[in-house]
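Troubleshooting entry. Yesterday's outputs looked truncated, so today I'm pasting the complete records for two proteins to confirm everything comes through intact. If either block looks cut off, that's the bug. Protein one:
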Amino acid sequence: MTTRFRVVTVPGDGVGPDVVDAARRVVDAAGAASTFSVEWTEILAGGAAIDVHGVAIRSDDLETAGAADAILLGAVGGPKWSDPNADVRPEQALFALRGDLELFANLRPVQVHPALVPSSPLRPELLEGVDLLIVRELTSGLYFGRPSEERRTEGGRMAVDTLQYTEGEIRRVVRLAFELAAGRRGRLASVDKANVLATSRLWRKVVDEERPNFPTVEASHQLVDSCAMLLVRQPAAFDVLVTENLFGDILSDEAAVLAGSLGMLPSASLGDRRTAHGRFGLYEPIHGSAPDIAGRDLANPIGTILSAAMLLRWSLGLDDAAIAIEAAVAAALDDGYRTRDLLRPGTAPDPADGFRHVGTSGMTDAVIERISIRSAAPTPVAAGPS
């Protein structure tokens, strides 16, 4: 008997529609090879919604997203909507989805596939054993603090942003990070700026208060500036990192260098709400909208495909299908399939290099072809729900 799930897609802007379509194709192929199917519902958000509706996301569409089993998002934003004086901006859709749906934790796993070591600017010996998970607080901090505005004063213009965290906001994401670390290698690094920020000092207190509840986890504190340095000098030393909103945004993009490309990394935004199948969440690649290559069959779909695998695992309870997709991605890379961003930095595609140079559709086809021929997989990209 086939189990049917409901997933809302938010293609968004730029390459978003390209990579979301690729991930949908892969999920449908995995379903055809298994005993599930997905009913896809598409909504507008970001710049595309501004152009059509005048808002970044409509309340009805937000309600539709919240009623599904999970959400798959492409990317939002772009130069077309980047006027700093605009009252309506594409990013407001992300804030609404995360805030209104209470998706307070963003999980960004970073692994380095052996075949992609040459794609990273780091020395190969630094990449050995890299397998880390960044847990970013997602619904508070500078991104949501008020006031956040520009003001005119007698001395000229000034701007203010508010960095605010409550104990409860910190505790729920820290507790999730401890749980994830307990299911991995048992190491948690809490990243802050406690030598400067009061919010970071509260963050440290909460981490220390939670520490006795997880005796198998070795927890440590790390200042964000030194963490940024260690991510490129000793990346294999990290297991799980937990940090506030802004720091997590920056560090996870830095960590993408390890994997060889922003196009490789998936993410999951989760809350506490459970559905009949798993934990409700929103899934998206960490890359931006890249409007310069939109619709040109150039975008790397792997980050979105792996985000869909996380969706299957966390929200739909389909761990076998998630593993099959992750194994198919690994097999395609092992067989030499490369999108443009996965070539050695500074090089152009060359038929003599032994790689199979493909675009968005070609990489997607390669993954789909391998779903049916691979039944086992390496360690999953991210730990499943606890």
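Protein two, checking that the full record survives here as well:
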Amino acid sequence: MSKNAQAELPWSDLPFFLALARTKTLSAAARALNLDRTTVSRRAEHLERSLGRQIFERNTGQFELTSYGRRVFSAAERAEQELKALDTTQDPKRHAFGTVRLSLSAQFFPALSKILAKFGETHPDILLQVTTSDRFVSLNRFETDVALRLSRQTPKGLSVTKLGRLSYYLYRRADLAGPVVDYITHPGRETIPEEVRAAAPDAQIVMSVDGVLPMRDLIAAGVGAGILPSFLGDADTRLAKCSVELSNGEFHLFLACMPEQKRLHRVNRLVTFLSKELAQFGEK
């Protein structure tokens, strides 16, 4: 072999690598491939030796990708998807580009349900898997592919698509009039914020509730006034604003994914689609 020659990439090891990266254990990868654990382990080790870099960290029985391993995983998935797209023998009803996982806060789901349905209709070759949680999911650990989040600051080290800022107002039931006297807060907050006190100087806390959607429903039930994002409050005809903007533009809506993941066809399609559809939510 000449000085500038390189060893061939062990393509035959990639299915084993992909299975182990996705399932994180030898047993699960072996079941997915209908093989034994020893074969999966041997092929993964062979790939590492061939690449000359560590691609897995073995932590308490789990195989977690290293930063280099994530780059290999992204490249391997792109190659896998391109090959699937060329396969004219597969069932046309199958999702040629696989699954893309989207994590979002539950407060966004009512406003996004039609948008997500539209994505499914216009991108039948991608299976969208949605999880609703306010927990901070780890993109680094591949707990999701894309995260839709709201924060004062956008995270570093990720591919971030900013959608604009969200505005918040005090809302109450639309058929109520006069000064606001009853206020709904969140658990652990025993005082009324100054910005709310300025809009409702006579207000007193009557209840606390965890979550934006329960807050909306309690306001609609007439329990009291509460703070909601404008995209949620304005869309509900049962509610009416009763303050000026409260958030001062501090909260920004954004999509985030790993930089190497965004190069995946399925992930890029979802980010591009959502960035256009959700631009209406944020104020630039």
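Both blocks look complete. Sanity check on protein two: The radius of gyration is 24 Å.
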